[in-house]
Amino acid sequence: MHASNPMKPGRPIQAAIPSVDRILALSPIVAMIDEHGREAVVRAVREELGGLRALLGAPAEAALAQTATDHISARVAARLEAAATASIKPVFNLTGTILHTNLGRALLPQEAVQAIAVAATNAVNLEFDLHAGKRDDRDRHLESALMRMTGAERATVVNNNAAAVLLVLNTLAQRREVVVSRGELIEIGGEFRMPEIMKRAGCRLVEVGTTNRTHLRDYAEAIGPRTALIMKVHPSNFQVVGFTKSVAEGALSRLARERGLPLVCDLGAGALLDMRRWGLPHENTVAEMIAAGVDLVTFSGDKLLGGPQAGLIVGRSDLVNLVNRNALKRAVRLDKLRVAALEATLRLYSNPERLASRLPVLKHMIRSLSDIKAQADRILPVIAHALAGWATVTMEKCESQVGSGSLPADRLPSFALAIRPSIVRRKALVRVDALSRVFRTLSVPVVGRVNDGVFYLDLRCLDDEKRFLIQLEHLDLDARHKPT
Ligand SMILES: *Cc1c(COP(=O)(O)O)cnc(C)c1O
Prior knowledge:
This protein is of the alpha/beta class and 484 residues long. Helix content is 42%, strand content 18%. It has 3 domains: 13-84, no CATH class; 92-99 and 365-481, Aspartate Aminotransferase, domain 1, CATH 3.90.1150; 110-358, Type I PLP-dependent aspartate aminotransferase-like (Major domain) (Aspartate Aminotransferase, domain 2, 3-Layer(aba) Sandwich). It has helices spanning 11-16, 20-24, 27-36, 38-53, 60-66, 69-84, 110-121, 140-150, 161-173, 194-200, 216-222, 249-258, 286-291, 317-325, 328-331, 336-348, 352-358, 360-366, 369-386, 428-440, 465-471, and strands at 92-93, 128-129, 134-135, 154-158, 177-181, 187-189, 192-193, 204-208, 227-233, 263-268, 296-300, 311-315, 391-403, 406-421, 446-447, 449-451, 454-458. The site of pyridoxal-5'-phosphate has 16 residues, from helix 9 and strand 10.
């Protein structure tokens, strides 16, 4: 790095840095003011010139070049462009987790996307009865479909399932006790811990049984005069295996009924239809819970249901009425965009035969192994060519997961491209991280999974193969990343 010119700069650089006003008068900068506004441009120029002061210790020749006005104006343009591009952008989810919470969970069906666009750009009858000409409830757009699909007497919808659980507990059990099995005191991640939610809802948690075994009599013995309800939580992201015992909803519901208590079930993923229909492992459906006698079921809209983020509450009409009268409901209600998207998503369920071709979540779940393999066969040579001399690429069997606590123990066989840095030395791990970083800097960032020094791209969720392949030409394998 310019070792031949180790001269210390100091003053000449400081003198060479142009003033803010001089830069603002440059004609390309004037054009930028037109596009981005004066305030943003002045800020970018100040930042850029401020950055130049850091060059005071750098070799003079290189530093002086950076003070040239056209260089500065190009850098200001780049700053403004970066500030103007959206922070939220599409990525390729090749992590092998279909419902990836950090990548936004369920991809919406086209029908839901259209419904969002209509609701976003029009006044809509969100809370207005067009027949009677008066105020109405926004749940009306969703309730009958949910009742039909789950067998519940009533339904309501809130911001997400965490809000649904909070609202139900706060409504039915404030200042009272909630009986839960120790084996179900889950943490979903991101601070959603059942004991914490209970505290926030104002309830006292009464834990029964042990981590691996809870019997009906454990529940029975824990019920007292302050008990408000019995809660069952679907163990979403783990499975207790071995010497285990939990009490099924049916038996629990008989006990609850005998003692005059409601049984609430936080189902989490919330399948509306039996997944075995598509050859997938069984996941408790909401309808099965209602049929087993659960009084209220809560579940997410953006997990197995495949819709927008939402928390659904279905069950006994007197209990849903109480939930609706809780002042907290207003704080966690759904906006019109998601009401529209959820309604459109639910409508697709009325034709289960076509659901798999319309609901992206389901489509990804049932994508055939041979289809994924054929895609891997097509992509492998292109990626291998782009990474030639840098990494080797092979095709490997792998296992995708549904994610977000759905079907936690079940894995879906899939194929991945396994990318290994060509020269594995001491810093192999650093290099594989650099490799995965390069993929994340593509115009549509590619997010894979690093495991044991190998960068895996699980192709199960790769829809837009063409776009993926085209941008491989832009993989920037500069010397910094290349193993030496
Ligand atoms: C995912 C999950 C939640 C949280 O749902 P969000 O929709 O993410 O708020 C709560 N309980 C269970 C059992 C879950 O699986």
